[in-house]
TrEMBL record:
Name the record gives this protein: MFS transporter, SP family, arabinose:H+ symporter
Family: Belongs to the major facilitator superfamily. Sugar transporter (TC 2.A.1.1) family.
Localization (cell): Cell membrane
Record GO terms (molecular function): transmembrane transporter activity
Organism: Salibacterium halotolerans
Domain of life: Bacteria
Keywords tagged on the record: Cell membrane, Membrane, Sugar transport, Transmembrane, Transmembrane helix, Transport
GO CC, one annotated term: plasma membrane
Domain Major facilitator superfamily (MFS) profile: residue ranges: 13-437
Transmembrane segments: 7-26, 46-67, 79-98, 104-126, 138-155, 175-194, 253-272, 292-313, 320-341, 347-371, 383-401, 413-433
Membrane topology note: Multi-pass membrane protein
InterPro entries per record: MFS_dom, MFS_sugar_transport-like, MFS_trans_sf, Myo-inositol_Transporter, Sugar/inositol_transpt, Sugar_transporter_CS
C-alpha cells in the first residue's frame, strides 16, 4: 500500500521550524518598547542605548557561526530545541535584570539561542519542503518573524497603557521582556513532534527513517526519487571542508549568500523596528500614540508578508526583490523629506508603511528562502551559518549605530543613506541574482558547477 503525501504534515514541519522566526521577531520588537523606559531609567547615551539593543546580535553572530557545525553532528532538530530553551531562560533573566550589565548579558544569551535557530530553521525547511512549494514554506520563517514583531508591538502598547509612566520605569519594561518565556517554551514543545531533516538522516546512514519522512512529505513514488537524488548528491562529494566554498562556482554562491544576508539588514527595516516609537515621537507622535503607530507598522508587515507567501513561487524571487528594492528606495527618500522639512503627522507614518510593505514582499522573506537554496547538500548548514553571521553582523551595526546617526547627522540624512543602499540592492538583484523558483535543491546545485556558470533569468 502506497503512503500518500500528507499536506498537514508538511505544514506542521514548516510552522514548527518557522516558530524560530517568532522568537527572532519577538526579541527584535520587544526592545523598541522597553528601551523607551530603559533610556530614562539608566540615563543611557546614544552609544549605550545601541549596546543594550545590539548585544543580542553579538550572541546571534556567535550562534549562527557554530550552528552549522553543531547541527551536522547532532542534528537540526536537537539544536533548534536547545535554542528554544536558551531563549526562554534569556527572557526570564532579562525581566529580572537588576542592572544594565545584567540585561546586556541576558540579551547576549538570547541572541545565542536565536542565532542557532535563525540559520537552522530555514535550512531545515529547505531540506524538507517539496520543490514546488519550497519558497512558500520557506517564507514561513519570515511570516512568523513578522507575526512575532507585530504581536510584540501590541504587547508593548498594552503594557505601556497599563499604568503610569513611572510604573513603566519600575515594572512595565520587565513585563515586556518577560513575556518572551512563553514563545520559547512553546517552540521547544512543538519541535518534539517533528522529524529530523531527511538529508541529515541520509548523511548519517539512517536511510529508512529518511524515506519514511520523505514519504509523508512527498508521497511514496516521489519520496523514492528524492531519496535517490539525495544519496547521489552525497556520494558525489568527497569533502565537507568549508574551504570548498572558496572554489570556483561555490565561491560565487557564497558571495551571493553573503550579499543577500547583508541587504536583508542594511536597507533599514530594523532601524524602524528597533527604534519605531522613538522615530514616531520625532515625527510628533506622543502620549503613547508612538506605540500605536509602531503597532500599525507591525500590522502592515503581517499583511504583506502573507501576500509575499502567495507571490514567491509564482512571480519568482528575482522579480519580487527587484520591484521591492526600487520601491523601498523611493519610500526612504520620502521619509528623509519628512524629517528634513519637519513634516509631522500622517505623512511620515504613510511613508514608513509604504517602505514596510515593499520590504515584506521582497528583501524581508526572500533572502531567508534563497540562502539555504543556493548551497549544495553537503555544505548547506555550514554555508548558511556563515551567511547568517554576516546578517547578524549587519543587524548589530543597525542596532548600534542608528541612534548615533540620528543624533549626529539627523533623521533626514540617515534615511537618505538607507535610500542609497536600497538603490544599490536593486542593481545587485538585477545583475547578479539568479532565479531559483520551481527548481529542486539538486538542480540549483548544478548552477555553481564551473561548466554551468549561468542560469536563465
Amino acid at each position: 500500500m502506497k503512503r500518500e503525501q500528507s499536506v498537514w504534515y508538511i505544514i506542521l514541519i514548516a510552522c514548527a521550524a518557522g516558530m524560530a522566526g517568532f522568537l527572532y521577531g519577538f526579541d527584535t520588537a520587544v526592545i523598541s518598547g522597553a528601551i523607551t523606559f530603559l533610556r530614562d531609567l539608566y540615563s543611557l547615551s546614544p552609544a549605550m542605548e545601541g549596546i543594550v539593543i545590539s548585544s543580542v546580535m553579538v550572541g546571534g553572530v556567535i550562534g549562527v557561526g557554530i550552528s552549522g557545525f553543531l547541527s551536522d553532528r547532532i542534528g537540526r532538530k536537537k539544536i533548534l530545541m536547545i535554542s528554544g530553551v536558551i531563549f526562554a531562560v534569556s527572557a526570564l533573566w532579562s525581566a529580572l535584570a537588576g542592572s544594565v550589565l545584567s540585561l546586556i548579558l541576558a540579551r547576549f544569551l538570547g541572541g545565542l539561542g536565536i542565532g542557532f535557530a535563525s540559520a537552522l530553521s530555514v535550512t531545515y525547511i529547505a531540506e524538507c519542503a517539496p520543490p514546488h512549494i519550497r519558497g512558500r514554506l520557506g517564507s514561513m520563517y519570515q511570516l512568523f518573524t513578522i507575526i512575532g514583531i507585530s504581536a510584540t508591538f501590541y504587547i508593548n502598547l498594552a503594557v505601556a497603557n497599563s499604568g503610569s509612566y513611572q510604573w513603566g520605569l519600575e515594572a512595565g519594561w520587565r513585563w515586556m521582556l518577560g513575556y518572551g518565556v512563553i514563545p520559547g517554551v512553546l517552540f521547544f514543545l512543538i519541535l518534539i513532534f517533528i522529524p529530523e531533516s531527511p538529508r541529515f538522516l541520509v548523511k548519517n546512514d539512517r536511510t529508512s527513517e529518511a524515506l519514511q519522512t520523505l514519504q509523508r512529505i512527498n508521497g511514496q513514488d516521489t519520496a523514492q526519487k528524492e531519496l535517490n537524488s539525495i544519496q547521489a548528491s552525497i556520494e558525489m562529494e568527497t569533502s565537507t571542508s568549508i574551504r570548498e566554498l572558496l572554489k570556483p562556482g561555490l565561491r560565487k554562491a557564497m558571495l551571493l549568500g553573503i550579499f543577500l544576508a547583508l541587504f536583508n539588514q542594511v536597507i533599514g527595516m530594523n532601524a524602524v523596528t528597533y527604534y519605531g516609537p522613538t522615530i514616531f515621537n520625532m515625527m510628533g507622535f506622543e502620549n503613547n500614540t508612538e506605540f500605536l503607530a509602531t503597532s500599525l507598522i507591525g500590522t502592515v508587515q503581517v499583511i504583506f508578508t502573507i501576500v509575499a507567501i502567495f507571490l514567491i513561487d509564482k512571480a519568482g524571487r528575482k522579480k519580487l526583490m527587484a520591484v521591492g528594492s526600487s520601491l523601498m528606495a523611493i519610500f526612504m527618500v520620502l521619509i528623509g523629506i519628512v524629517f528634513y522639512f519637519e513634516i509631522q503627522g500622517i505623512w511620515g507614518l504613510l511613508s514608513i508603511m509604504g517602505f514596510t510593505a515593499a520590504f515584506c514582499i521582497s528583501m524581508g522573506p526572500i533572502p531567508w528562502i534563497m540562502i539555504p537554496e543556493i548551497f549544495p547538500n553537503y555544505l548547506r548548514a555550514k554555508a548558511v551559518g556563515i551567511a547568517t553571521m554576516f546578517l547578524w553582523g549587519a543587524n548589530f551595526s543597525i542596532g548600534q549605530f542608528t541612534p548615533m546617526l540620528i543624533n549626529n547627522v539627523g533623521g533626514a540624512f540617515t534615511f537618505w543613506m538607507f535610500a542609497i543602499i536600497c538603490a544599490i540592492c536593486y542593481i545587485f538583484v538585477m545583475t547578479i541574482v539568479p532565479e531559483t523558483k520551481n527548481k529542486s535543491l539538486e538542480e540549483i546545485e548544478t548552477i555553481w558547477k564551473p561548466e554551468k556558470r549561468y542560469i536563465s533569468y
